[in-house]
Design brief:
With about 60 residues, the protein is of the alpha+beta class. Helix content is about 40%, strand content about 15%. The protein has three helices and two strands. The chain has a two-stranded parallel sheet. The longest helix is centred in the last third of the chain and has 13 residues, at about 50-60.
Length: about 60
């Protein structure tokens, strides 16, 4: 809750390394955090869905 920097939390629904519930809890604990949730993605989400990830990242950073 002390993080005040703009934050994008990426949540991969099929991540076997970091449980999606942990990423969701992280996002809920950061005020004004934005989420990118892809239920079908695994731990390699940026490589599995580069177009979706890059679009979300560019949208997020363009507002900074």
């Amino acid at each position: 809750g002390r993080i005040s920097a703009p934050t994008l939390v990426v949540i991969a629904g099929r991540d076997s390394t970091v449980a999606p519930v942990c990423s969701d809890e992280l996002a809920m604990g950061i005020p004004y955090a934005r989420r990118l949730h892809l239920p079908a993605a695994g731990h390699g989400l940026p490589m599995e869905y580069p177009d979706v990830f890059n679009a979300a990242w560019l949208d997020f950073t363009s507002g900074l």
